[in-house]
Amino acid sequence: EVQLVESGGGLAQPGGSLRLTCAASGFSIASQGMMWIRQVPGKEFDWVATIDRDGIYPIYRTSVKGRFTISREVAKYTVDLQLDDLKIEETDRYHCATHITSVNYRGQGTRVTVSS
Fold first, then answer.
1. Model confidence pLDDT, tens digit, residues 41-61
2. Backbone angles phi, psi at 33, to 5 degrees
3. Which residues touch 62 (CB under 8 Å, ≥6 apart)?
4. How far is Cα 70 from Cα 102, in angstroms, rounded to an integer?
5. pLDDT at position 40, please?
6. Is 25 exposed, middle or buried (0-12, 13-18, 19+ CB in 10 A)?
7. Which of 9, 21, 86, 103 has the fewest C-beta atoms lying within 10 Å of its C-beta?
């Protein structure tokens, strides 16, 4: 069974940092691209970043380039998202997600609150 469990959210001040972790099970992250998405309650999901299945070519939403970093540890089955220089408007619930054989999977998410 595919499972994605996020952790690491919390409260950060504007300009602060958090590190989110996605623990994957039921499949190998070395064989799948992995992504982080975020959602404000009542709104659609916004894509944030993707790391390809080879772990070589991360891509980012324009607004987070240079501030967020996606990475993975295959042996630990984890995908991280380092959030630096956070902005108030980035208060959202962050989810990791993947797409396996025509099925989309998404974890329950972890809440990030950016406030002074």
1. 788 999 999 999 998 899 999
2. -70, 145
3. none
4. 23
5. 80
6. exposed
7. 103
- The residue among 75, 80, 101, 72 whose CA lies nearest residue 2 is 101
Paired with 107 in beta bridges are: none
Length of the chain: 116
Q: How many CB atoms lie within 10 A of CB 37?
A: 21
DSSP assignments along the chain, one per residue: --EEEEE--EEE-TT--EEEEEEEESS-GGGS-EEEEEE-TTS-EEEEEEE-TTS---EE-GGGTTTEEEEEEGGGTEEEEEE-S--GGG-EEEEEEEEETTEEEE---EEEEE--
